[in-house]
Every structure is written in C-alpha cells, then in structure tokens.
C-alpha cells in the first residue's frame, strides 16, 4: 500500500497524481499462493476512499487523481461502468432528500468520485472496431486471453458511460508512445489528473502558463512574437531551476525527475485573445494561429534547453534516447512546415495551414524549429520534455484570464461554484474590446454588454426598481442591501427571500412564517408583480447571459462570441464539439506533452455523438480526450444561468 502513502503526500501539498493499474490481477485470476484475486475494482475503491479523506493542500480543494486502465484488462467492463452505477446511487440518495452538492453526503457515500478515469486505447482496438471483430481481454499473470468480447459492445459501453457521467476519458496509447522522446526508459502508461503531463512512471514536472492576451495588442491586432519568445525563454529557465528546488514524494520520483528533467510550460487565454481579435474560435484561421503560437512556444523552449546544455550538460538519459528525441523534433518541424514527411507515426497530425495563418506568425513558427534543430545538432538538450497545455482553472482568474488553457469561453457570463460553498459571477472582459475592433460605437457597445450581463442594479429597471419597491413598503436600508446583492445574482428572485431580507422585513410586509417558509413562495409575485413584469425586470438587471438578439449586434458577428455552451435562457448557439477537437489537433503536434481540455457538449447530445468525438480525436492524432455533456452529473463546478435555473426548478 505504499502507493496510497505516496499519493497522500502528493495530495497534502496540493499536487496531483496519475496511475495505470493494469498490472493488478483481474477478479478470479489465480494467486500464486492459492485462491483467487479479489480483483482490480476492490483496490481502486480503497484508493478512492484514501483520496477522498485528504483535502488537496490542506484546503477545501479535492484531491487530484487520475486512474488509467489498459483496454485489454480483464475488468475493463466493470471499470468503464463504475461511475455509471455510482451515479445511479447518487440519484437515489438525492431523491431521498440528501444534498446534490458535490461535497454533500450523497456523493461522499458512493465510490469513484475522487478521480478522473481514463482508458488506454491502442490503434489495434479501432482496427478491430472497423472490422467488426472481437477484443481480447488478457490475463495479468499468464498473458493469455481470458475473455473475448465484441469490440463494438465495449465501444458502446465506453461511449454510454461518458455520455451518462463524463467518464471514462480516452488516452490514445499508440499515438502517445509514438511521440515518446525517451522510450529507452520504458513506455508511457499514464498521465497526471488532467492528462496534459504524459511521461515515464515515477516522474513529475512543475507547470507554468503564460497569459497570451498580454502579448496581443488589441488596437493593432498583432501578436508580440519577440516578447512571447522572451517569456518562453525566461520560464524555461525558471522551470529548469525548479527541478532542483522541488520536493518529491518518493526517492524514485525524485531520481527520475532529476534524470529526465521534465518541464511543463504552457499558455492560457487563447480563446479570449481570439475573441478580442474578432476571430471565431471554430475557424481555420483560429486553428492556424493556435498552432503557430504553440509551435513558437515549444521550439523556443527546446532552443533554450539546447543553449543551457552547452553550459550545464544534457539530462542524464539523453544519449541513450538521442535518436528518438531527434525523430520527435523533426516531426515537430514537419508539422510547422505542413510537410507530410513524418517519421514513425501510424496517424499523422495536421500541420499549420499557410492559407489561414498570418505570414509573420507562420514565419516565426518555422524559424523557431529551424533554430531549434540547428542548435540541437551542435549542443544537444538539457531537458527532454518542455511543454504541455494545462487547465489553468481557478488560477486562471488570478492570471486575469477570461478563458483557461486552450479553451474557448465556457459562457459569456457564468457562475463559478466554490468548493467551500457559494458562487461568484464571472463575465468575459474581452467582449467590449472585441466589439470595438469590429467597429461598434461606444453607446452600441454599452447596450450590447448590458443586454448580456445586465445592469446589476434596481436603478432604472422596468417595474421593479427603487421607487416601486419603496411604495411596496421596503426601507432604504433594505433596498440598498437588495441592490448590492444583485451584483452576483443569477435571477432577481434569488435576492427576494427570507435569507436575503430577513424575517423582520417579511413580517413587516405582512407575511407569516408559514407563508415565506414554503418552497413555493415567490415574494415578488406575492407583493403584486406579474410574471411578465418580473421577467422584464430580470432581463434588465441580470441580463440575458448572451449577445444573441442584442441591440445593434450584427448576426454575422455572432460566431465570434460563440462559447462552449449555449448562453443563458435565450442563447441557441455554441461551439460544436468538432471545433474543440480541431483546435486541440492544431496545437498537439507542437507539444512535448498533451492538452488538458474538456470537450463540452450540450445536454441533448447523443451517445452516437460521443462516439463520433472520441473517434475523430483518434483520427486527428490527439493524445487524450475528455468529454462533458452539460448536466450529465447531478453536481458540476461551472454553470451557466440556464443550468442553475434548471437545477433549482
């Protein structure tokens, strides 16, 4: 049980861990001392409970844990359906009156809630699927098939499980290992919790993300390549120093991290930068820009590594892996030049399309890899893995990012659920800048923005305002309290209740406790406002959460403001899942590691669409894919107004 001890240390200090459990015997496999194994799932449930007992970094943040399993494990079917069955139990507990909150008793009671689960899928499985063949499950002790199941059935189970509860995710094992820079040290078997760091067992890396918006001029619409390259150089050096400063949970992890010196440089706010530039996220131009910036980042990081190697020497395991590293470097360069001369790849990636990439970015991307390969020929490399794209979740807010990692915006206006309880309202700050760049006048911009986010005040609101409420008997202090609360309100009705106003106020207005304690009590209706009046006031105060239908905004510009989800009650547009996947495919050929990203699908998405997304990701040479169908879990951390209203009603 040394693994649980090491995981506990990792969680305690705020880090995450990923493990491939495929070496554990399947249930009913024979033990060397007699008897039969209790199986994989029993061990996974122990680890899940251990992770649930430890708050990451000693705070309210949950432990970050990835559980991977090879697709040929004897218990793959149970693993795939694990969370599906547990979600059914959660639903039953919620129906019995337990809280649906993710930190509540219902979710704490069931297993499997403290990890992300992923299956490791080789190319051979997709071949079996295409041919309508069977898939063998292999015993862990003798290496022989213990069961053969139709590949299509397993594919259906995986897709249904992802549709029902967002797990398991997919990790494309063949592609991952074909881009492996150090196979002499072993295979890549797993990833970190968010799937961006993929390397040898018992290794680790520190992450850093650069805010792309800081290098983009919203007036000239030009990306500062030189400044970005300088930032990449500085942060490569900083991360290299951090390897020496880091503390590790075990001797093995410390030793291999020193031997291989893996880094995790990435970026954030790509989605917001594209919006400000007036470029739709789901467009060829956006993908060309995303690919070129990623190429510049990784090429610059490796060039910096080569320069450092001249002074410090290479990482310890360089010579035995040199030919593999140079092959992978050449493949990065081929992608920059959109050249199909890839080496050692069954599935070739999409390079930068010169038809859609601004000339200065394309030139910088190609030059970054010319410079890198020239340096490597003469100086070798000090660290082997330099770049990933991390999720930059809550930390992205501290970085002043509207969008995380490589993501588009989740919604123009959204509500972040805090682990310790409560919500706060997040509004995309790039919308006004984008509108200016599209030529809108200031009064038009103000009208469009207020249409989306609302005025957040009673002042000037139709029907429900300072004057009308004062006439109903509200005091000045109560009105000021209401007005202040509207800044974070989902809907105005959420502010008009006994918890916000207090019983003294409601009693003075003539209501008894049995009235305002009823779950059906609506104060605004009770004091005489009609549903239509409430709806009109709500739209003015809290906004529509979308720009669709906004005054002055041209329909031809709607796609620039498309988000991962439909926005608000009125919004109908959203970025198709293929748009997410294609953006990932544009960046992946230029990354040492992988991409942490959630592919968002609407609630009405089908199981067939899940299959389509997973298969497209494989065909476009992604290393991993995680899907989330809106509302598929009974509790989720990031919501639009549409979801919250559905949940409360």
Number of helices: 26
Radius of gyration: 26 Å
Could you tell me the mean pLDDT? 90
Low-confidence stretches: 641-649
Distance between the termini: 45 Å
User: Percent of residues in beta strands?
Assistant: 5-15%
Q: Specify the structural class.
A: alpha/beta
Number of strands: 15
Helix content: 40-55%
The coarse overall form would be globular
User: What kind of sheet is the major sheet?
Assistant: 6 strands, mixed
The neighbouring-strand order within the major sheet is: 1-2-3-6-14-13
Architecture overview:
This protein is α/β, with parallel strands linked by helices. 44% of the residues lie in helices and 11% in strands. It has 26 helices and 15 strands. A six-stranded mixed β-sheet has the order 1-2-3-6-14-13. Strands 12-11-15 form a three-stranded antiparallel β-sheet. Strand 13 (598-601), helix 25 (607-619) and strand 14 (624-629) form a beta-alpha-beta unit. The chain is globular and about 80 Å long. The two termini are 45 Å apart.
């Amino acid at each position: 049980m040394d693994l649980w001890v090491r995981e506990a240390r990792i969680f305690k200090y705020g880090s995450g861990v990923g493990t491939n459990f495929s070496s554990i015997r399947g249930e009913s496999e024979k033990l060397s001392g007699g008897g039969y194994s209790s199986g994989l799932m029993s061990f996974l449930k122990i680890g899940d409970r251990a992770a649930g007992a430890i708050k990451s970094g000693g705070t309210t943040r949950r432990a970050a844990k990835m559980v991977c399993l090879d697709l040929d494990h004897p218990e793959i079917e149970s693993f795939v359906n694990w969370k599906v069955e547990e979600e059914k139990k959660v639903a039953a507990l919620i129906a019995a009156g337990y809280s649906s909150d993710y930190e509540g008793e219902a979710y704490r009671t069931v297993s499997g809630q403290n990890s992300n689960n992923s299956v490791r899928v080789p190319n051979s499985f997709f071949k079996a699927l295409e041919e309508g063949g069977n898939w063998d499950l292999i015993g862990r002790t003798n290496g022989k098939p213990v069961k053969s199941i139709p590949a299509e059935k397993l594919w259906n189970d995986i897709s249904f499980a992802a549709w029902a509860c967002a797990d398991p995710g997919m990790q494309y094992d063949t592609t991952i290992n074909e881009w492996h820079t150090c196979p002499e040290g072993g295979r890549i078997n797993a990833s970190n919790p968010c799937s961006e760091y993929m390397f040898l067992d018992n290794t680790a890396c520190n992450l850093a993300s650069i805010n792309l918006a800081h290098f983009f001029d919203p007036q000239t619409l030009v990306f500062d390549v030189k400044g970005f390259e300088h930032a990449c150089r500085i942060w490569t050096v900083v991360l290299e120093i951090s390897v020496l400063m880091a503390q590790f949970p075990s001797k093995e992890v410390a030793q291999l991290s020193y031997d291989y010196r893996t880094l995790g440089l990435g970026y954030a706010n790509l989605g917001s930068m594209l919006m400000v530039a007036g470029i739709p996220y789901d467009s060829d131009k956006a993908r060309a820009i995303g690919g070129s910036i990623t190429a510049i980042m990784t090429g610059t990081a490796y060039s910096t590594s080569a320069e450092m190697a001249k002074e410090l020497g290479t990482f310890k395991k360089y010579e035995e892996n040199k030919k593999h590293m140079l092959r992978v470097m050449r493949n990065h360069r081929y992608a920059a030049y959109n050249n199909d001369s890839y080496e050692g790849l069954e599935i070739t990636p999409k390079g930068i399309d010169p038809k859609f990439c601004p000339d200065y970015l394309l030139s910088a991307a190609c030059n970054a890899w010319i410079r890198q390969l020239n340096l490597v020929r003469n100086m070798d490399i000090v660290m082997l893995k330099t770049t990933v794209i991390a999720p930059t979740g809550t930390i992205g807010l501290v970085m002043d990012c509207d969008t995380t990692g490589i993501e588009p915006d989740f919604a123009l206006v959204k509500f972040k659920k805090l682990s310790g309880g409560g919500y706060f309202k997040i509004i995309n700050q790039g919308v006004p800048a984008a509108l200016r760049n599209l030529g809108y006048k200031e009064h038009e911009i103000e009208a469009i923005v207020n249409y989306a986010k609302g005025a957040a005040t009673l002042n000037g609101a139709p029907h429900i305002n300072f004057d009308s409420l004062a006439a109903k008997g509200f005091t000045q202090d109560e009105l000021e309290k209401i007005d202040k609360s509207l800044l974070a309100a989902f809907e105005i009705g959420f502010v008009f209740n006994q918890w916000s106003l207090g019983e003294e106020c409601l009693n003075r207005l003539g209501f008894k406790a049995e009235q305002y304690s009823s779950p059906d009590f609506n104060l605004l209706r009770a004091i005489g406002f009609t549903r239509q009046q409430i709806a009109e006031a709500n739209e003015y105060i809290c906004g529509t959460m979308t720009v669709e239908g906004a005054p002055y905004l041209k329909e031809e510009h709607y796609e620039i403001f498309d988000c991962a989800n439909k926005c608000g009650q009125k919004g109908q547009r959203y970025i198709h899942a293929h748009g997410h996947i294609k953006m990932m495919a544009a960046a992946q050929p230029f990354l040492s590691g992988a991409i942490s990203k959630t592919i968002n699908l609407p609630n009405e998405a089908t199981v067939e669409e899940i299959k389509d997304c997973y298969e497209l990701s494989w065909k476009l040479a992604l290393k991993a894919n995680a899907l989330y169908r809106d509302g598929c879990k009974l509790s989720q951390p990031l919501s639009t107004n549409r979801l919250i209203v559905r949940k409360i009603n």
